[in-house]
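Hey, I'm writing a tutorial for new members on how sequence and structure tokens pair up, and I'd like a real worked example in the thread rather than a made-up one. If someone can provide the structure for the chain below, I'll link this post from the tutorial.
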Amino acid sequence: MTTPPRLEVQNLIRAFDGQRVVDRVVFAVEAGQVACLLGPSGCGKSTTLRLVAGVDRPDSGQIFVDGKPVCDGKLHIPPERRSVGLMFQDFALFPHLSVSENVAFGLKGGYSANRARVAELLERVRMSSHIDSYPHELSGGEQQRVALVRALAPQPRVLLMDEPFSGLDERLRDGIRDETLALLKEEGTAVLLVTHEPDEAMRMADQILLMRDGRIVQQGAPYNLYNAPADRQAAAFFSDINILNGVVQGALTETPFGDFLTPGIPDGSEVEIVIRPQHLKIDFDRAGQGPAPTHENGTAALARVVRARYLGRESLVEFTTDQGGIALNAVVPGVFLPPADTPMWLMLRRDRVFVFPKE
């Protein structure tokens, strides 16, 4: 017999003033899996989280925990009976309770069992020495750890996290995210995390649910979303992009880098050819001299430097192509700061280029 997903959502719809903010959302999260609802502000991800939590009711659709309905149009189990934990960006610790009292707040066992569970969790996040401290005595990172173990203490089947790291100092964020992920995996909890930061989703998620205008436009492993985006907007959400515009003629589209195969797109259709800055390569040896070099990925394009900036670990070089005056950005590891108007040959990796119908 197949084990049902820990969390399953089917055709969830929620509208306000006639406008759908969650529109036929479908996904599932397995035990021990982290799923990230990712998207810009206002796309519907936090509303989806509230519906799963039970603090808001969908207009239609179904929500299951371990295969059992908690919301299906008629049934609406309240949040405290869903075995769903909540963790939000403001931590929401009770200021008048100690760390141990905060963590034990939702536990139903006796004093000894509760104290043992609290001590176990605090030990795992290296907070044992603060067991009798109060929230105002803790740093932001320490409060985040306490909020996490408080959410996990009752052993919820599903943990919902809404922008949980956004209030942390950037220097602390990566380490605390990694600690959090390790603890969640150990507990085997199904996690639904809301974030608007692609780096956070890529770092933590087993699957990403990319939302736009209330819908999930693409879902899958981070590697797949990054390397096979559904459309130009999906590609742009994960990194900066360059765009070459063209028109299909005979299944080919002409560009400064030569013709691109665009099979299956009708002649006369406009397309957008998307290139990430790190996949635009510079021919350092020829530096714009002589005839256009060719290589296995096609013809190079002659371009001139507009501006170059050093960003710390890499340099960003802005170009304009001689053919068509197209603005392109290239990322180069280390320090590379050529003067403005320097001519250079640019090449690209065609296996890392995406072609989409023009939006």
